[in-house]
Batch of 3 targets.
Target 1
Amino acid sequence: MRIAVLGTGYVGLSTGVCLSEVGHHVICIDVDQQKINRLRQGISPIYEPGLESLLLKNTAAGKLHFTTSHQEGLEKAEIIIIAVGTPQSNDGAADLSYLVQAAKDVSAHLKPDAIVVIKSTVPVGTNDYVRSIIANHTKKPFKMVSNPEFLRQGSAIKDTMKADRIIIGSEDNEAALKIQEMYRPLNVPVLMTNVKSAEMIKYASNAFLATKISFINEIANLCEAVGANIIDVANGMGKDKRIGEAFLQAGIGYGGSCFPKDVKALLHTAGQYGVDFSLLKETISINESQRQLLVKKALERFQQLKGKKFAMLGLSFKPDTDDMREAPSIVISRLLHQAGAEVIAYDPVATENAKKVIGNTIQYAESVEEAIKNADALLLVTEWEEFKKLDLAEVTKQMKQPIIFDGRNSLAEDKIRACSKIEYYPVGKPSIV
Ligand code: NAD
């Protein structure tokens, strides 16, 4: 099939690359000339494991193309997948301005009878809204399908190729079947729904997962208060099939480009329909306070933070991505800076993006060694594999005092105990002092 993808971000690029890998002819369109230039040279503009090799392979095979021209990208496409951003606007609602522009771009160059697929995360009713925008701008016939995306950054290729399910929402059976056919090579279970249910499935899924995270974080805080151990508690809970083991890792809160904005957008939708979804308000407020946890723990330990030097390990909102959107490291950096502390941070891939968001209120190191040198404390903020394998004897030697606040419970306790000098403050389980 001939497919056009609008937007070469985490979702659009992963989708385009994977659809070309399974045999389709894909052209990816972006308004960002720099991104397209890099993609044409076979360089991925985002860090995503496995993406670049598939990009090179399918570009070389002539199945994957990149352009900034909507006309070139759309004129032959029988399926048009819209994967542009839907960030949060000031009132918490989803900002649909990129989507509206994309709809206008589509209407200008649409091939008659093309199927327009909305993959971006959009509030209930948006597919109908986009349909009306396109219909107002062109007389050509077209069909609409809602096909929300569930991939996770850091495992986007695997998640696309081996998704748990594909949701296809449409009021047009023929269009829905064609999109099912497009995905057939992936051999993934497909669920057909109406458009509004498809739109809701995406928000309900993300809001549920975010709530699961806030729930386990509150249990972790309670574990600390009563002397229980969150690792054992989560393990015991997760063995219950009704609960499941995923998303029970206590830590310093969720971040990223999806959970924070999607929970707020769903709350906004609820408000518009007069539904008081107070559970979501709590999910958000627990998460906001959890992001401050390491700073609170540091304050408890040191009494005052002015002049203290903190090594921050990890900047991205989670490992295996360079994405800084809503990363807890942003809040931690701000609080430490306000308290007069010095921060020197290291991340394996997110430093350049972090500089754009956090700026020069903190310093950036090129290695763990550089970050921890003479530090008063180490804050483990993102659970990169590299940090789990830290040589703690070396850490003890390099730091001014070996005090570790582990926001992701990623260091093995037996290794900590083997280094008798380390003071260790994890989340939801007893400290080692
Ligand atoms: P992104 O910001 O990384 O990428 C969006 C891209 O769209 C940018 O490159 C931008 O230049 C391009 N763009 C904007 N307007 C355009 C237009 N008119 N024509 C062509 N290109 C245009 O966004 P993302 O993280 O890939 O997310 C895209 C959507 O998917 C959002 O709705 C998001 O909520 C949803 N989603 C994201 C994830 C994730 O993990 N990132 C997962 C599931 C769903």
Target 2
Amino acid sequence: MIAMPTRANTLELIGNTPLVLLEGPSEAAGCEIYGKCEFANPGASVKDRAALGIVRDAEARGELKPGGTIVEGTAGNTGIGIALVANALGYKTIIVMPDNQSKEKMDTLRALGAELLLVPPTKFADPCHFVHTSRRLAEETEGAVWANQFDNIANRRVHIDTTAAELWAQLEGKIDGFTCAAGTGGTICGVGLGLKEFDETVQIALTDPHGAALYSYYAEGELKSEGSSVAEGIGQGRITANLEGAPIDTQFRISDEEGLVWVARLLREEGLCLGLSSGINVAGAIALGKRLQEQGRENPRVATILCDTGFRYLSSLYNADWLKSKNLPVFDWLEESA
Ligand code: PMP
């Protein structure tokens, strides 16, 4: 008999994602590199987990009442997760998003029935920043709660309880390293804390894109950024509540070009269509695999997060004109078909 579990409701479709051995990255690293298929969540990203965790927490604290509204500021994926969870549980959703994020995410949010407010991309210190705008909207809206994914640690808790526990079970307790980039930091800190509870020798590495300030923070104790990145959903300039006490052992800084190499190779050689944060994570995982071997670990196993589906970026990452406009290399097969 084939073991095919039935889920009792649609929310149970969130999490329990497959883990896949990535062939090209494993060959490049000289050790096993695994990708956690978070694009397989119903909202096609890792943020479905945080959305469900935050909503359940607000319910448990009595803040979110039947028929209430959930307000959030997001690069898009958390909004999509919240809208799905809200629809399943009978809540309304209001999403504030910077207007430079992918069109596909905006269209998806509208399709899901979320009320969408676009704001200009500004620095966190600006009162019009999407996070502050969403907080104000929540305060002004009757029966609304603010999800506050950056500083609400229900976000990282869900990764301790689910993502870390799943990785440990899927790799049968043989895992040497984990790395990913941070947006809110919920994934890296939650998975890091969770895995270290199982085995404190698991090495946790932060993979930071250019333009983010966490690499220098963990390397030198100072928040400093350098360069920029077009990757959506990652790149943090402050220590969010979700990042406080993150068990980071080492850190890597990965460029968009390096991430794109793996986006392209995973698509063409392994049939995985992913967003750029996944490519950056995979480049970081290869760096971690090599580092662990230099440190004397034999045949280390490293896991990372395949954060979201590439179908969310067809008009950007997978569009020759857009790539050229950002001075990024164009995938040769896109050039041919343009
Ligand atoms: N990749 C993508 C595409 C995302 O949307 C996010 C969430 N902002 C992340 C990575 C980072 O996840 P986290 O917020 O848990 O740090």
Target 3
Amino acid sequence: MASPLAKKIVIVGGGTAGWMSAAAFARLLPSECKVTLVESQQIGTVGVGEATIPHIRYFNQLLGIPERDFMRETQATYKLAIEFTGWGNASSRYMHPFSAFGADLGGVDFHHHFLTARAIGSNAALDDFSLAAQLARGNRFAPPPDEPGLGYGYAYHLDATAYASFLRRYAEARRVVRREGKVERVTTAPNDGRIAALVLESGEVIEGDLFIDCSGFRSLLLGKTLGVSFESWRQWLPCDRAVAQASEPLTPLPSYTRSRATASGWQWRIPLQHRTGNGQVYSSECISDDEACAQLQRALNSAPLSDPNFIQFEAGYRTHSWEKNCVAIGLSSGFLEPLESTSIYLIQMAIVKLVEFFPDADEHISREAFNRWMGMEYRRVRDFLVLHYHLNRRQDSDFWRYCADMNIPASLQEKIELFRESAVVQHYDQGLFAQPSWLAVYFGQGLVPLGWDSRAASVSADKVARTLHGLASQLQTMAERAPAHAEVL
Ligand code: FAD
């Protein structure tokens, strides 16, 4: 990187987004960049966000944080998959593991052979062919084996407040300056409207070249000051409320997140070492806050440890995350509900892309590239989340009937139709979720394709049946030999 244009970087907000940004800038930007972070303890953070996807491991590696230290400091557990119960119909249950299913046979993707086997009577489930899913089912964990076709990714469940504190210590040890206080006013330059300074309640003025808005749902700089509009996706993701409550840790300790559909939304269960995170996500048009909270409390698997925390939100994003000299990272740039644990991933992507595109000559080019990238990330994640809602056959409430009948984004419609016709998973350009993730939801929620790759017929039905049976039993045996998750921790 040549000499950067922005030498004074000011971050507003000390939640997960703020401290992940500060830590990464301290490590990755040239030392001439001075980083200041302003946060207000009086305002506090959103206080949720505990499930991740495997990319967070690369973020920690980028920062040079050993896994052992990270896990101890954040009371983290391992996460191999998400279990979805009640999403296809009221009794359906499937795992979305961080892994592929089986390996190709005769050059044809595994799931086409899986379909052949089903057509001749096999009742195996797709997740019988993922070691990660089998381990998760048994509340077990083992590091991924180094054998072709058997590997998988893993992520963590973590205490988000502890993670932010951990990253704060990391960043402050690398010269990030923290200022406590509430930003009361933001001043802009009269000639071009760029942000000039923050004025704190105390009267302190903090000037900067580049401002990072990590102020959460308030979107203090990007939304309120610069007026970048919010595009709502509520018509596709109708949940707009959540209530969260912690409870005692679980025994045995699951190595997966659970997502259980309810009549007007869904409930999460996130196992940590020292507690369990629980929450109910719901549409305020279908259920009251009190009813949602009562429903969540009835479903708790262990004694409560905190009072319920109610959160309001709207699914959608700011049409561009970088405007003038301000980049929004985290909830200030948008929010897609936590169904596939993608928010921390989106924070990570924004940080990595900002560092990659960090302007040293022409800010305009970097800004355009960044905005195009982030817009694409948001829309790809959106489509995958909408798939879960749309592909339901529950018919037991207005909420689920609406989701099944709603008009979905054309990009998603096209993808579903192609799969229904031919079992082909269309490859999006560089979206987060790859073929195995789409297969998990398609099959898990009961979308059976009408046709599949005719080349699968070149492998005899007998060989397919033997191969599938052999693989499922091999994975089951491996999973049964693996240690319990709690033991590994
Ligand atoms: P916040 O945590 O809200 O932080 C905002 C910061 O800005 C605070 O420090 C606040 O004090 C500061 N601030 C605001 N205004 C001012 C001001 N005027 N002056 C000074 N400081 C100010 N993500 C996942 O990846 N996995 C999950 O499982 C997950 N679950 C979620 C469940 C729910 C119900 C919700 C709503 C979100 C969930 N998320 C999840 C998203 C996740 O919580 C956020 O992405 C993450 O916490 C980052 O939040 P943030 O830092 O952007 O905002």
